[in-house]
Specification:
The chain has about 400 residues and is α/β, with parallel strands linked by helices. The chain has a seven-stranded mixed beta sheet with strand order 2-10-9-8-5-3-4, with helices on both faces. A three-stranded antiparallel beta sheet has the order 11-14-13, with no helix packed on it. Helix 4 links the parallel strand 3 and strand 4. Helix 5 packs parallel to helix 6 and helix 11 crosses helix 12. The protein is globular. The N terminus is likely disordered.
Length: about 400
């Protein structure tokens, strides 16, 4: 059974313009005040905007638990993948080697990034959803002494699995290597405290669990690693050391920043703090997941993952086996009812995904389940039970 979590006291306001809820892992549904923050223009060189950047960096660092001043925050223009590439290209030496842990699209994208960088890497590919485990990492590091770094995906949204990053970190540092974390879809809702999980750098994005809008990401890294990265990057614009040095010297981004997005993100950070920070945001998302999953299971849907591995970020469901079910039709019916869901990314079986993050609460998730029930009825689908092959595939998941 999923853990019980606290009920929401007051329903959150719905989208002010009547647009559908985005049940996706980002971009996601944002608060109206976050959108309003983008109505003002800001000068990128102006002192007011420099102060906004400084405040943003300070607030993000506070979420890591760094009380010793060992880390710093470097915002970078672009999407999350831009920032992952910036992290890998800046912190992995040109003669280094990366062990990439993959159990979905984003681990494989990290491996593809290493190919483009022309730097050595090796891959543990667990397929669609099996989690990489600490003993596997330890064995790989023991077998290949050339490996200098490991990159792990905190929450792999291909399946919705929350990977065991703490276990992985222990294995990495027991073998004297360094860990980089892609916490794109987890940071801000799932703890990544530097006092509890050791890593050299992590990366996330404005339009995920902080509930901002797309336009930039950020790297939080040890200052020692930022200093060592000088002259290492393959790219002018993705050089994390150069961006960091320029920010600290001038208070300005090196190149034109997404000013409106930063303003919106600051409002999102204030709302995040008002909700109780990482713990408060994570509790709401967990309740969203629990209510939605319980309701969908009552309709006959089955989750890809067992409860142990379900993240509070996004959940993968198997497509029903019923002959009348067609995902494209289901998608459009759900959209007509105010909810945009997400196609599946699994290769072995057909699936779809429902996000739990963004400006939504358990009241919205009950409406999601109701919309799914009505949509199935309109399609002439009397049960959402998956095919036997899907259950067989799930049985492979480690207990």
């Amino acid at each position: 059974m999923l853990a019980e979590t606290k009920f929401a006291a007051e329903p959150l306001a719905g989208p002010a313009l009547g647009e559908p809820y985005l049940l996706t892992p980002g971009p996601l549904t944002t608060a109206y005040s976050v959108k309003q923050a983008m109505l003002r223009d800001w000068g990128s060189w102006d002192g007011d905007f420099r102060a906004m950047t400084s405040d943003m960096r300070r607030r993000l660092l506070a979420l890591t638990g760094d009380t010793q001043g060992e880390f710093d925050c470097v915002p970078m223009q672009g999407s999350g993948s831009f920032c992952v590439e910036a992290m890998l290209g800046s912190f992995v030496p040109r003669d280094g080697k990366v062990l990439v842990l993959a159990n979905g699209a984003y681990g494989l994208r990290a491996a593809q990034t290493m190919q483009y960088l022309g730097r050595a890497y090796t891959l543990i590919d667990k397929g669609d959803y099996l989690p990489p485990r600490g003993d596997e990492v330890a064995a790989a590091l023991e077998a290949d002494r050339a490996i200098t770094h490991v990159i792990a995906i905190h929450c792999e949204t291909s399946s919705g699995i929350l990977n065991p990053v703490a276990e992985i970190a222990e294995a990495v540092y027991a073998k004297g290597r360094k860990l980089l974390v892609d916490s794109m879809s987890a940071f801000g809702a799932i703890p990544l405290d530097v006092n509890e999980i050791r890593y050299e750098a992590m990366v996330s994005s404005a339009n995920k669990c902080i509930e901002g809008v797309p336009g930039f990401g950020f790297i939080i890294a040890r200052k020692s690693e930022l200093e060592a990265a000088k002259g290492r990057s393959h790219s002018l614009s993705l050089d994390v050391n150069a961006q960091w040095a320029h920010l600290n010297k001038t208070g300005q981004w090196r190149y034109t920043p997404p000013t409106h997005v930063v303003a919106a993100f600051l409002e999102a950070l204030r709302k995040h703090e008002g909700e109780g920070g990482v713990a408060g945001r994570g509790a709401r998302y967990t309740r969203n997941r629990d209510v939605m999953v319980a309701g969908m299971r009552e309709l006959g849907f089955e989750t890809l993952l067992k409860d142990r591995w379900l993240s509070p970020i996004i959940v993968t469901f198997f497509n029903p086996a019923h002959a009348n079910f067609a995902f494209d039709r289901f998608y459009e019916l759900m959209k007509d009812k105010g909810f945009i869901i997400y196609p599946g990314k699994l290769t072995a079986v057909d699936s779809f995904r429902v996000g739990c993050i963004g400006q939504m609460d358990e009241h919205v998730m009950r409406r999601v389940v109701e919309a799914a029930a009505f949509s199935l009825n309109e399609m002439g689908v009397d049960t959402a039970a998956p095919p036997a092959a899907a259950i067989a595939e799930r049985a492979k998941l480690a207990a």
